[in-house]
Write a structure and sequence with these properties.
about 210 residues, alpha+beta, 6-stranded antiparallel β-sheet, 7 helices, about 30% strand
Length: about 210
């Protein structure tokens, strides 16, 4: 079992009994790429610390259009997979694995017992959720106030930093899911960016030129 103390920052505020209880309840899980592992109206799994890989937290419109709210990278903790512990979460969010992803999961039932005994755990949950909602607000700001070419350019820049390369292995459909658009619009905009000399398009690849 992974070292929970290094994965969950609230660990140092637990009693010895609480640490032992959560350590015995926690388990390691590995999810394959694109595995849907949570939705608000489904099973409330618990909080997940990402050991390797990444999770995508997103929502889907009535028309089936996806928009990524934020990502949970290696070393970070996903709180919304335990949204049943937060009464204020009333909208449907989905969480899927980006590539093969390994997590340390503390089940909701075990966490709920400890948070009732230790208010610092409950404070940690809401503090983490608040920090993530600042990322959600940034996403909404992009959707409302940025043009599609600006959103795509911003996404390509962020993805370049994640992949540590100016040549990105990514499909137009995947970009559309990330920014809340449709593939046809993304492809048309990328073609425009290519004509402007900003990118070079290839099969399943995009090279950032400027």
């Amino acid at each position: 079992m992974e070292n929970q103390a290094s994965l969950f920052s609230f660990w140092e505020n637990l009693t010895t009994e609480q640490k032992n209880f959560l350590a015995n309840s926690a388990r390691t899980e590995i999810f394959p790429q694109n595995k849907l592992i949570h939705r608000t109206d489904g099973e409330c799994r618990g909080i997940m610390a990402v050991i390797c890989g990444a999770l995508r937290v997103y929502c889907v419109s009535d028309e089936g259009r996806e928009v990524t709210l934020y990502r949970v990278e290696s070393g970070d903790v996903c709180i919304l997979s335990a949204s049943c512990l937060m009464d204020s979460i009333v909208f449907d969010v989905l969480i899927e694995a980006i590539g093969e992803t390994k997590v340390c999961l503390i089940p909701s039932q075990a966490l709920h017992k400890v948070e009732k005994e230790n208010p610092l755990v409950e404070l940690y949950i809401y503090k983490n959720a608040t920090e993530k909602f600042s990322e959600v607000l940034w996403t909404l700001q992009q959707l409302l106030f940025m043009k599609i070419d600006q959103r795509i350019t911003a996404f390509l820049h962020d993805e370049s930093l994640r992949q540590k390369s100016t040549v990105l292995s990514i499909k137009h459909e995947d970009i559309a899911k990330e920014i809340g658009s449709v593939r046809e619009v993304v492809s048309k905009t990328l073609k425009y960016l290519e004509e402007e000399g900003l990118v070079r398009l290839g099969r399943g690849k995009i090279e950032i030129l400027k």
